[in-house]
Design goal:
This protein has about 400 residues and is an all-alpha fold. The chain has one domain. It is about 70% helix and about 0% strand. The protein has 18 helices and three strands.
Length: about 400
Amino acid sequence: MVLTNNQPGLPIMAGNQQQDTNPMHEIAGQPQTIARPLTGPGKLANSRLLVKSFAIQGLSVGITLIVLTIYLTFYPSQPDQSLLKTLILIGGLITATLGAFLGGLFLLSFYHVARYQKPKSAIVAIAKQCWHIMSEPQRRTLGLPFLTTLIVFMYPFVEIKNSVPLIVPYAWNEPFHNLDVWMHFGKAPWEWLHPLFSQSPYLVFVLNLNYNFWFFTMWIVLVPFAFTTSNTVLRTRFFLAFFLIWAIGGSVLATWFSSAGPAFYSKLGLTPDPYAGLITYLNQVNEIVPVWAIDLQNEMWEQFKGHGINVGISTMPSMHNATALLFVIGGWHLSKKMAIPLALHCFLIYIGSIYLAWRYAVDAYLGWLVTIVAWLVAGPIARWWHNRPSVVEFTRQLETLNPMAKQMAK
């Protein structure tokens, strides 16, 4: 009898043996027996299971379809919207998603090779490790539907984010600034940070570097969860929370609390500008070391002001801060050691979002609240989902794709 893994850290039992189902251990842990690609009837069965996997991951697929429906029903198109630009956007999302996925896969494979192997050629060893991960039918069966769902989800999300000021003009900047001052003892949060970061431009550079690394950090966490060999409750809970955060925080709340962030405070005609000193200092630092945030903010404003096209100016709640906290929670379940650098990354994302003039501090606080609520809500839903007969049967069939599990069960 095979028992499904319904709690983090519990192994799948096959006969008298135990199989480690921690995704981090499977992908970046100690060397394991790699399943050979299936051929013949086995390959056909695997293809059918791959199709079935979309339905089994129906919670994420369902959220994606809801967000897509909301976008098509309620949100207007950009002023320059055309079929060509839509196709370019979709192509860009596919390229960015696959590129980031390969980057995350490379980093995890690099970690595996650096820790457990001493190869003559590191490049060849990393390439083999990447191939081993992707050649396992279980990983493909779970991971490829996730990648597809994420790409489909990101299209309406990006369009909704870009359409926010067309629905609700940026009206919350002053209230959020005032709330920041009230919550932080009479000063804007950046003013508390300035005595430290004004000591060296390289401190600002490190903040910006960490902030930009958020995208790769996301995929370092997503890859072990997406391309695991086991359909666990933890995996379902993580991705349900992940999609809820983006759908509710990045779409619904972002529209309701439409705001542009400190970098655009004076550009929106708001005076006096309490962030003028910060922007001046960041521009000075940018002359010494790169501050990519400054150039990107200027480019985003030029697109918005010059052409009426929004390319992502929306701050409340902060998705960087919200997802960074989710990475800490997920990383804690993957590996306690992994959670430590993720927690540091999360903290620096918070500091960077304020001092690089991207966010108000309250943007981060609401983002964290959305994450905590999403994680708590996702728990019982994921457990209910895995008790459904179709999911139990799918999990059983998925386990039979593992030759090691078959051998242990005999």
